[in-house]
Amino acid sequence: MPLFALICTDKAECEPLRKANREAHLAYLNTSGVTLMAGPFLEGGAMTGSLVVIDVADRAAAEAWAKDDPYAEAGLFAKVRIEEWKKVIG
């Protein structure tokens, strides 16, 4: 199966929205069975976006997974970029 990187950028001034949905987001990452790695982007210590690498069948599955992320459902992201990704090192 291919890997996909989700590069998500938060809307401005949305840290309270991120914090309110963080527990549900982490549960989704931990129970979906496809998350290989994930973490927030930081700016001055504040979370400003997310990088998530998932192992799914195809782009349609990656798009569906991204749509069902509690952060996406809450409207946290200004932009979500989905790229097919090949692991070379690590």
Question: Gist?
Answer:
With 90 residues, this protein is α+β, with helices and mostly antiparallel strands. It has helices spanning 15-31, 59-68, 70-73, and strands at 3-10, 35-43, 46-55, 77-85.
Summary tags:
3 helices; 90 residues; alpha+beta
List the helices and strands and how they pair.
Layout: E1 3-10, H1 15-31, E2 35-43, E3 46-55, H2 59-68, H3 70-73, E4 77-85
Antiparallel strand pairs: 1-3, 1-4, 2-3
How is this structure best described in words?
This protein has 90 residues and is of the alpha+beta class. 34% of the residues lie in helices and 40% in strands. The two termini are 18 Å apart.
What is the alpha-carbon Rg in Å?
13 Å
Note the overall shape: globular
Q: Structural class, please? A: alpha+beta
Give the % helix.
Answer: 25-40%
